[in-house]
């Protein structure tokens, strides 16, 4: 069986790390898996980059400017939109040259694969839905939020506007393209994404199944807490609350405004925050309660960080899955999140974490306090670890193998 994984990046970003974990999991099962990306940052010889340095620097910049111009003409939302009008040079020819039995698309935006190119792929297609874009009119997430008047709740402002000409055009392009594809299966990384996809005119006629996100549970595993804090130069005698994502402070959807509110509300001098991600803009550290660690691209170091902290908070306002949630649990660290979207699959309330009432900051604080009270409970740590094993890279790779096999036999 020859499988081709197609994703914009190989190891940069949550979606990319999920796609790469699947790729490595398939290889460990003895499957001939290759990966095509636009931007390669790993040294893996089973990963192939289709873009030349010249195209990235010159042509892709021109295409990006043109897409930016188009989006600005119509956009009336803070949410990210991808119009997929441009693609990497001869990408379809490159994909088809591998003669794969299955092409598994993942996150393919940032001018990697335009919509119309998808119908030109020769092999049967499995598309792993890592956000809402495969079945939306162009947006990656469709909901907008703001604080209510008392600043203790987030309220939904609106669903992203889909009635302008740009969104109608993207919708029509997807419907036209996907109707041409005879063998197309969508695999959502959460039940929430699958249910949303079933409502969409773009995807509802196709097969939609649920397969969770995989992690390497040998790398992400509990490490000794005090030693982990030594490695990262973190205080040993404090309760440490961890928050982070690839765009932890710049992406409104990741809930950084919630984190800032929590910082204001938690006055216990015994509690400090650890933040990792893109930058520290918006972090007020005048009282030295925040330890900012920046980007962490090494999974072993990230595992050490999860193990060093007592609680991981994930206040995302919409989340396809929340890979960092399962990574933290694999290291024995409970997670507090809002009880909605992808978190409903991964967190069992007061068993391996706390599902706060959406989108109530006070209840989120209740969740943090519950975790602090139970931070030394060995059963809580065991429940976190046991839950994460359902998402081991081996089990998830086997589920994909079974799906691929079923499609090939048909």
Description:
46% of the residues are buried. The strands form three sheets. Strands 3-2-1-4-5-8-9 form a seven-stranded parallel sheet. The two termini are 14 Å apart. Helix 1 packs across helix 14 (393-409) and helix 7 packs across helix 9 (299-308). It has two domains: 2-214 and 392-409, Glycogen Phosphorylase B (Rossmann fold), CATH 3.40.50.2000; 225-391, 3-Layer(aba) Sandwich (Rossmann fold). It has helices at residues 14-28, 53-74, 91-96, 115-118, 165-178, 191-198, 225-232, 256-265, 299-308, 323-330, 343-346, 361-373, 378-388, 393-409, and strands at 2-6, 32-37, 47-49, 102-105, 125-129, 143-147, 154-159, 184-188, 207-210, 239-244, 271-276, 290-294, 311-314, 335-338, 353-356. It is built from 14 helices and 15 strands.
Order of the strands making up the biggest sheet:
3-2-1-4-5-8-9
The largest sheet is: 7 strands, parallel
CATH superfamily of the largest domain: Glycogen Phosphorylase B
Portion in helices: 25-40%
- Average pLDDT works out at 91
Radius of gyration: 21 Å
How large is the count of helical segments? 14
Helices and strands: which structural class? alpha/beta
Q: Any idea what the CATH architecture of the largest domain is? A: 3-Layer(aba) Sandwich
Overall tally of domains: 2
> What's the CATH topology label of the largest domain?
Rossmann fold
Name the poorly predicted regions.
none
Global geometry: globular
Number of strands: 15
Rounded to the nearest angstrom, the distance between the terminal CA atoms is 14 Å
Order of helices and strands: EHEEHHEHEEEHEHEHEHEEHEHEHEHHH
Can you tell me the CATH class of the largest domain? Alpha Beta
- Percent of residues in β-strands: 15-25%
């Amino acid at each position: 069986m020859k499988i081709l994984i197609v994703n914009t990046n190989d190891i940069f970003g949550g979606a990319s790390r999920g796609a790469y974990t699947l790729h490595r999991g398939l290889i460990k099962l003895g499957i001939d898996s290759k990966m095509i990306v636009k931007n390669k940052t790993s040294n893996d010889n089973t990963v192939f980059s289709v873009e030349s340095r010249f195209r990235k620097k010159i042509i892709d910049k021109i295409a990006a400017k043109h897409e930016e111009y188009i989006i600005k003409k119509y956009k009336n939302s803070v949410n990210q939109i991808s119009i997929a009008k441009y693609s990497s040079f001869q990408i379809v020819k490159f994909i088809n040259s591998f003669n794969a039995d299955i092409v598994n698309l993942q996150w393919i935006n940032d001018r990697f694969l335009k919509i119309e190119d998808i119908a030109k792929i020769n092999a049967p297609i499995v598309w792993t839905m890592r956000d809402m874009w495969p079945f939306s009119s162009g947006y990656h997430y469709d909901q907008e939020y703001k604080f209510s008047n008392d600043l203790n709740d987030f309220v939904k402002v609106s669903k992203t506007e889909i009635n302008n000409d740009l969104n109608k055009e993207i919708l029509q392009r997807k419907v036209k393209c996907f109707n041409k594809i005879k063998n197309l299966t969508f695999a959502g990384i959460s039940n929430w994404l699958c249910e949303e996809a079933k409502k969409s005119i773009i995807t509802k006629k196709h097969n939609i199944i649920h397969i969770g996100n995989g992690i390497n549970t040998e790398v992400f595993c509990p490490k000794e807490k005090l030693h982990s804090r030594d490695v990262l130069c973190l205080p040993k005698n404090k309760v440490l609350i961890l928050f982070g994502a690839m765009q932890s402070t710049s992406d409104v959807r990741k809930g950084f405004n919630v984190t800032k509110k929590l910082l204001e509300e938690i006055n216990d001098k015994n509690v400090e925050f650890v933040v990792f991600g893109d930058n520290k803009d918006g972090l007020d550290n005048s009282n030295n309660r925040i330890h900012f660690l920046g980007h962490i691209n090494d999974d072993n170091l990230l595992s050490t960080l999860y193990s060093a902290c007592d609680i991981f908070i994930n206040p995302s306002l919409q989340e396809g899955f929340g890979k960092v949630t399962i990574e933290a649990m694999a290291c024995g660290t409970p997670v507090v999140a809002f009880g909605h979207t992808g978190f409903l699959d991964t967190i069992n309330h007061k068993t391996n974490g706390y599902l706060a009432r959406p989108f109530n900051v006070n209840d989120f604080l209740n969740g943090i306090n519950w975790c602090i009270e139970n931070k030394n409970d060995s059963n809580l740590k065991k429940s976190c670890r046991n839950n994460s094993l359902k998402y081991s890279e081996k089990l998830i790779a086997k589920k994909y193998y079974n799906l691929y096999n079923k499609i090939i036999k048909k």
